[in-house]
Amino acid sequence: MAMRQKILHTPEGVKDIYGKECRKKLLLQEELHEMLHLYGCEDIQTPAFEFLEVFGRDTGIVSSRELYKFFDREGNTLALRPDITPSVARVAVTQFEKDSVPLRMCYIGNTFLNHGSQQGELCESTQLGAELIGDGTAGADAELIALAADSLKRAGMKEFQISVGHVEFLQSLLDAAQFPAEVKEKVRTMIARRNFLGMRELLEKLPVKRPIREVFYRLPELVGSVEILNEARELAPDRRAILALERLKEVYEILKLYHMQEMITFDLGMCGKYAYYSGMIFKSDTFGGGEPVAKGGRYDRLMERFGRELPAAGFAIGTDELMKALIRQKIQIPEEPEQIILLFDREQRKYAISLAKDFRGKGKRVELLEREEKKNLSVYHIYGRRKQAGSLIYLRRDEQIIMVNLHTGEKKVVDCA
Description:
alpha+beta; 9-stranded mixed sheet; 5-stranded mixed sheet
């Protein structure tokens, strides 16, 4: 009995998607995918699992505990991908010559994270993203932010904001504080989780120089329009932080050319989910949302991990999170043309198949059904509404055609003899 119960249910953190919900998700992905193509991105597919070392601790993705790990027959440890970016970086280093950069790549694929019992988080989710490899300029940073914004607009999102930061500003502050490694990571985690009260309580117990301590206390305030970069410059602990602010200002000037300045907010307390980020980072939040619907940034040092120095940046949109955000905001997700139920008596099979082929040639979705003798026509009306079809066409053996609008119930009879 216990075994039967297991095979009838999915494990925690995964779910089945079917019917209209699945169609909407696929159509949404098609819309987003098309936008990535419009920016010149070329498709890439990478394996769902790789050698553990691709996603290991040195890569700066997630802890080993959050990976789904298994062994191949030779005893190598493999892992399901928690993120697609490292796989794309591996391909860029191993498969492309130096003169082939810059590379603009895009992908759709599922990622796998073992969250354990964290309620509400999916362990398997779909990522759609783009990577720009071989271009280390501020223009590349701005282009990716613009592409992420245009993708969300293409999906129908209207109310969203893009927060932009730079990991070197916060890193320079953490280095200036001269924390031990374990304390530095603890403070960084608190800032990433916006637990500024906990950070303050911790700092009060540590021997941090007063000017540096005050900058930490000001982090919650260093959020806002481009003017916040000037304010932060006065607080910058070293030249590295100043260069990070200057880079953000350069990115902003380019984003103005995309007419995006109104949706940009700077947040100098951002540090990025993944430790591989090395420069500009950004995320897009919507009202009433949990996880950001899009996030990304520059990850130049990740390429070195695979044996080649290459500047790189990218972003990913979580299509499951985006679906939830669109539903929360009551935004209509693009749908395919309504389905037609083409019902026929056995004697009309040839005509039914011919008609279905004609409809499909014109881009209409058609489901062919042979009527069972003992079933009332109303049974098929109910079936069509359950499938959310728009109309039912019944080809009778007496060569009459009954057309039913499944929304209104309106019926029309045509004699095709």
